[in-house]
Amino acid sequence: MSDLDAYDYDLPRELIAQQPLRNRIDARLMVVDRASQSIAHHHVRDLPEILSAGDCLVMNDSRVVPARLVGFRTETRGRWQGLFLRSDSATGCWEVLSKTRGKLKPGDQLSVQDRNARESLTLTVLARTEEGHAIVRPEQAGEAADLLEQYGRIPIPPYIRDGQMVDSDVADYQTVYARHRGSVAAPTAGLHFTKELFESLHRVGVTGHAVTLHVGLGTFRPIAADHLDEHQMHAEWGQITAETAEALNAAHDAGRRRIAIGTTSVRVLESAADERGRLSAWTGMTDLFIKPGYQFRAVDALMTNFHLPRSTLLVLITALAGRELIRRAYAEAIEQRYRFYSYGDAMLIL
User: Fold this and answer.
1) Mind listing the pLDDT tens digit for each residue in 271-286?
2) For the chain, which domains are there?
3) How many other CB atoms sit within 10 Å of the CB of residue 335?
């Protein structure tokens, strides 16, 4: 029997949200209380009444880059798709996940079209990595982030419109506090917040603090191993500043809650914390895989979306809330017709 069988569930396809609600704060919010083992139903707009003065919200301010590339192979005109993974500032080369018929070879050229099919960017294939990714050189000068803004598309997950973006995704698939470009997927719990909601939370004494984690390719990969101990997380770059660390330490010392907005914020906090739960300035790569048995050191509560079956994210929230409580919560969410995944509703684990 696979360990992952405990993290599986059947979801009616119609519950997978295909677009966000017109007003982000109108999303439903399931409040799961670990102390009382209770489940209550609210809306995101109710957060100022649910949270307490002094609570600290910790948000991932990474900005999604238009990393999805669409075009064709210049020689054969065969369709080609790619996902930008990273660039090498020294050489100007890109590493991309490539999807096309046949294998690319050094010297092949790819024509990347912008969303309006009016302009194109030529990529020349230089090599392939051990993982099968392509190393390419853009033939147009410019920073990778700027070229992606011009020629790339928002990398919408495949369960939303088969991964096909629409113009509204440019704003919808981005948090209102996104700052640092670098993610290929949105930290989706943050999609529920608006500037007006933050103002309401500030008025009741809830503070906000930023960390950064650039969400990488691992977000799209299910757990392939039969046992959790065999799964290797894809490393992602993260950062917490000394100012944020000091503020969260002071909050903890005063008995105030550190509430992570999204699992990516959890991974930054737990990667930066020492054994006593003290935070300090930290920058680096993290491949932390949080699973049952993990002792949380720097997170008191978590707001998150509803996650895919057999995913590392579902494993993480199970480690925080317990298997039976999460099983009940997901069953109740399906029964109550909650909207699931990136554009769906949210859960607050207290």
Assistant:
1) 999 999 999 999 999 9
2) 3-64+170-349 (3.40.1780.10), 68-151 (2.40.10.240)
3) 8
